[in-house]
Amino acid sequence: QVTLVESGGGLVQAGGSLRLSCAASGRTFTWLVMGWFRQAPGKEREFVAGITWNGESSYFADSEKGRFTISRDNAKNTMYLQMNALKPEDTAVYYCAADTSSRAFVTRKYTYWGQGTQVTVSS
């Protein structure tokens, strides 16, 4: 079975920080690429950040790269998203994703998805 379990979401004030975690089960897979997406009410799902097995990372924008840091612990099969200086516009459901193909790092098309965790940033 392939399951992505997320944790770390919640309610924070603007300027605060959160650390999201995504534990990936299914050790028979080599998750070459993992990533984070988010979806706000009434909006399309958007890419936030991605990371390869070796730790190469990619972000949607440089501004987010300065506030958000994606990382992974391959021994634990877990991915993280450290979010600092949070803004109300960061409010969304955050999804973790994974793929066995390195191409996903470029296409940002992932095969496996978690169920999402709510992040709410108050003004």
Structure description:
The structure is a single chain. The protein is mostly beta strands and 123 residues long. The chain has helices at 62-67, 104-107; strands spanning 4-7, 10-13, 18-24, 33-39, 46-52, 57-59, 68-73, 78-83, 92-99, 112-113, 117-122. The strands form two sheets. Strands 2, 4, 5, 6, 9, 10 and 11 form a seven-stranded mixed beta sheet that branches. Strands 1-3-8-7 form a four-stranded antiparallel beta sheet. It is globular. The N and C termini lie far apart (40 Å).
| Oligomeric state of shown chains | single chain
Count of helical regions: 2
Spans of at least 5 consecutive residues whose pLDDT stays below 50 are none
Q: What is the tally of beta strands?
A: 11
State the helicity in percent bands.
under 10%
Mean pLDDT: 92
